[in-house]
TrEMBL record:
PANTHER family (UniProt xref): CYTOCHROME B-C1 COMPLEX SUBUNIT RIESKE, MITOCHONDRIAL
Entries under PROSITE patterns matching the protein: RIESKE
The keyword Transmembrane helix is assigned to this record: yes
Reaction equation(s) it catalyzes: a quinol + 2 Fe(III)-[cytochrome c](out) = a quinone + 2 Fe(II)-[cytochrome c](out) + 2 H(+)(out)
Pfam families per record: Rieske, Ubiq-Cytc-red_N
Class in the EC hierarchy, top level: translocase
Name used for this protein in its record: Cytochrome b-c1 complex subunit Rieske, mitochondrial
Domain of life (superkingdom): Eukaryota
Cofactor: [2Fe-2S] cluster
NCBIfam families: Rieske_proteo
Amino acid sequence: MNVIAKSTTVSPFLRATATVVSNGGIPVAATGKVHKPKVTVPSTVKRALGQTLYQDLLTGPTCISSGVAGSSVAGVYGAKTIVQDLVGLLSASADVLAMSKCEIKLDSIPEGKSAVFKWRGKPLFVRHRSDSEIAHEAKVDVASLRDPEEDSARVKDPKWLVVIGVCTHLGCVPIANAGDFGGYYCPCHGSHYDASGRIRKGPAPLNLEVPPYEFPEDNMLVVG
Ligand code: FES
């Protein structure tokens, strides 16, 4: 399943205006491989979605949701339209969505970089933290935080931060490696997150959400 954004906020725009060009790609199911449909989005829709959302969600790598892809490969890739993708998502049963998992090969993310994937219709940030970032976040005085959480409580392996890329203020998609604390910056209303995804400045009330995930083997992350 190739989901572009939260259907509750974006689908009306896309149903009405998005033009999608089929690129003749081969279906991939339950593999976690990247699939990038060629998409043309009118300027009005770009403005509505915001530059970050446009860049991250329409051109960023896609993490295939195994349960959903397995159930609707023919329908989704037969015509390759965003609208069909969204319809496919909406028609998937809740239990299938609940079971959907995302496999990510970690050696594709260089140290110091934050990659964006799509998981259950949301952007997913996977950050390969440097030693200096790890040390810096571990030293933060938790008592000074709006949403107090130790860095160690937010990561299973200090090298990897895994968070949902949705600002906890009003749901925009933050920009990686930006803002006053070097983690993520949400330009919508100026929320600054650190490299642990914790809110440090601006109107957002909570830290970026940490989804369920595990490292079943070396170099492999499974979210969901
Ligand atoms: S939505 Fe991110 S700061 Fe308002």
